[in-house]
Design goal:
Layout (H helix, E strand, L loop, with lengths): L5 E4 L3 H12 L8 E4 L3 H8 L6 E3 L2 H7 L2 E4 L6 H8 L8 E4 L6 H8 L5 E5 L9 E7 L5 H12 L2 E5 L5 H9 L1 H18 L4 H22 L3 H8 L5 H11 L2 H25 L2
Parallel strand pairs: 1-2, 1-4, 2-3, 4-5, 5-6, 7-8
Antiparallel strand pairs: 6-7
Helix pairs in contact: 7-12, 8-9
The protein binds NADP nicotinamide-adenine-dinucleotide phosphate.
The site of NADP nicotinamide-adenine-dinucleotide phosphate has 26 residues, from helix 1.
Amino acid sequence: MNTKKVAIVGGGNMGLAMAKGMLQTKWADAERMMIAEPLKDKLEHIKGIAHGIKASHSNTEAAAFADVIVLSVKPQIMSHVLDEIKPFMKDDKLVISVAAGVTTGYMEKKLGGKVPVIRAMPNIAAVVRESATAICPGKYATEDHLSMARNIFESVGIVVDVEESLMDAVTGLSGTGPMYVFQILEGLSDAGVKVGLSRDVANVLAIQTLIGSSKLIKETKEHPAKLKDLVTSPGGTAISALHSLERNGLKALLIDAVEVAAKRSSELGSKKEQSL
Ligand SMILES: NC(=O)c1ccc[n+]([C@@H]2O[C@H](COP(=O)([O-])OP(=O)(O)OC[C@H]3O[C@@H](n4cnc5c(N)ncnc54)[C@H](OP(=O)(O)O)[C@@H]3O)[C@@H](O)[C@H]2O)c1
């Protein structure tokens, strides 16, 4: 178990998912964890997630308490939160942010000194400890800091290291990714109903098909195109369906969606930089 004190600022979906992951894998100890959150009702809920965990309405208390401060608030209020915690920052603390579009350079400038900063982009599957997270270091973060961040995000899924210039691309692909998958699943479920299945049966079949296909691709490490060839027999159902998908531009739609989400992440970041 790690001996650092950890604070999570923002006890929303992502903040609580990370807290639970760290506690479940026993990377962090509840006695050494504090979650800061403005809403009183939520504070009560937070105290219930683990015996001994600290909940505070004060971000400054959390920043003073912890060695590792994980910022899990919306990008729009990051500026305010960084200003609040700045007086409590020292160069031996580590700040990790999961906010879309907020760069390490922006955080470093706001915090001043040589505070080590790491930017991360997880996704909502962190709630079930199946996130795909990318991390990148700021200019004062060391290999030890990166290793600590890897441990934190490995407690809620898998982690890859990327250059910061690729973080907007990551946000477009895997940060936003669960939304694409939910849309695809909803579409498949509707399709099942259209061809006569009950909604429940259509949902179960669509979800398991997605899980099974993902597991197959993960375990065989085959290229998707090769697995697609495996299931498209001459003159069969799959090749007819594939023709329809190609005609309607499914892959182009997905490429467009990822591109536009990556662009939006970059715009959110640029707006912040300009405000400095
Ligand atoms: N959700 C995702 O799929 C996802 C994926 C990747 C990255 N992220 C990033 O994760 C971050 C959090 O997202 P989320 O989905 O967890 O949002 P969320 O559920 O809205 O959580 C944000 C939390 O911050 C709290 N908060 C608001 N103002 C605060 C303040 N001044 N100080 C401390 N806490 C404050 C909110 O409390 P109230 O509810 O009381 O306002 C809320 O509990 C965002 O930056 C987002 O970009 C999210």
